[in-house]
Structures are given as C-alpha cells and as structure tokens.
Give the backbone structure.
Amino acid sequence: MARQRRACRCRRRARLTPNERRALGDSPFVHFAEVGKTYRGLRRRVAAVVDVSLDIQRGEVFGLAGPNGAGKSTLIALLLGYLKPTSGAITIGGSRPREFVERHGVGYLSELVTIPPRWRLEEALSRYALLAGVETKRVRQRVAELVERLGLVEHWGKQIRQLSKGNLQRVGLAQALLHDEQLVILDEPTHGLDPVWTQRFREIVGDLRHPERAIFIASHNLDELQRVADRVAIIDHGRVQRVVQTRATAKDSGAIPYRIVISRGIATAHELLPSAREVAPGELALPPLSVEALNESLSRLLAQGVLVASVTPVYSSLEREFREAVQADPSSLHSPA
C-alpha cells in the first residue's frame, strides 16, 4: 500500500503545464480518429467498434447512448486504455489513453460497482482516496464531504454488504469524485437510484461542470442524457450513427407528439382539436406537432375558455433521434422519471 501511495503522489505531480495548454490550443481534449476494435475468436472475428470518430471538448458533458451490445462498454474500455484499438487512434489531452490515465488520473464509475463486501463505507472511500492521490492529511475531510453530499452519513459505519443497491451506487459515484480530475467517466450512473437521487444526480453533474473538465456519461436513460448532456453520440452495431445536440433550441426539436390534460372544457377541446384522441378522462393525445403548431392549438383552446392543466411531450427530441438511429421499438426504450 505504501508503494501504491508513492506511485499515486508521483503521478499526480505531472499536471498540464501552461506551455502544454498553449500547445493544445483549441484542439479537442478527447479525440477518436477512425477507431476500430475487433475481437478475435477461435472461429470468427467480431467487430465491436467500427470506424468511430469523435471529438470531446473541455467544459463539455458528452453522452453515449445505444442498445445492449452496441459497443458502449468497448468504447469506454478503449477510452480508459484497458484495450488498444485494432485500427485508428485515441488521444486524451494529446496523449494516448493509458499514458494520460497514469499521469493525470481519471474519475471513473463502472457500470457494476464492486467493492469488497466486508469493507466499511468510510474505510473503502479512504482507501480509494489514497489510491486516487488525495493527500493523506485531506483524506478524512474529503471522504466526509462526499459522504454528506451523497446522503450516506447514516451509513458511515456500515459494511458494504449491508448497503442497498441504490446506496452502493452512490458509494461508487463518491469514489469517482474523490479527486479533482480533468476527465470524469460515468457508466450508467443513475442505475439503481431512486427518483430523488436521480434528480440530485443532475445537480451533481451541474456542479462538476468546469472549463477544464470533460464529463463522459454512458447511459440507457435517454431522459437523463437529454437533461444533463450537451451532446449525445448514438451508437449501434459498433458504429456512431449520429451525434445529437441536446442543448438545441426548441425550434430545432421538430414535430413530436404531446399529451395535454384538460381541467375544464373537454368537449370544446374535442371540437377544436379533431385529430386528438382521449386516452384518459380529461387527457388528450395530440399527433406530432411542431412547437409553433402546438402553441397555435393551445391559443385556440385558451381563447375558447378551455382550462389546460399540463402539456407533456410523449418523448424527447433525443428519444426521437434514438428511435430513428437504431429503429427501436418504443417499448424497448428506458426512460424512467
């Protein structure tokens, strides 16, 4: 352990110098150039990632979405330097992934959080803090800060095996945030979290935003990616099908279906919106509409005294892009509230 601590401290002293920053200029922080990864079996080859080219900038929250088996895990393993590409090249801050990780470190939350079950929460985070390069004198303070921030104070003395799935996920998130990293990679970060902590996760991502930090989030939860990411790459069969600007204006979101809840005047609403169908008492499903057409419809309703309680898009612009990119069935999409 002492040897590991010394290695971490040496690694952490190698930060980007002002000259290095000037040399990088406006070049992308993370760069995938026609990256491919093929696994070789006894009888056949499997192309897990095919010709992927992506740029991720500092200060950006970048999302990755795709169905099961699309290549997300392989792409993350390549980004961390666990795997080497069969073709193409990857750089982080101008260095190869493993060189960057060993020199600067990365905040990483894996899809499955695995911690020795008999370790206590405080013990586990303290050990990870030392390995992450947190100064020994600051370890207890930093661990206490994150335990409080992630609502784990009441579990301070518990063994890992005593924690629920959601609490274990928050411990995993805490270890990924122990050190102030330039690159944070979160794989399915809201998996197992209840609605309250799913919402708080959005706040955590907002707090993590920094001009010199890139945040990479892989998730099946399209609604969360829509809320927290600046751009989202949609991957299927190992290929990036498209990159969606999730911070686009409403004008760019195109026509999507809506549901409206009517508190008063449902009969009038039926007359004014003949294409709408009633899916529940007082609730109408509208066909795909542009933002302009939606507002025109609402204006007609309000002008005739109809009281509208709520207007909700049936699926987000990212979900629509996802459906088009992978031709997914709506029931297969995972977008919990």
The chain has two domains: 2-245, 250-332.
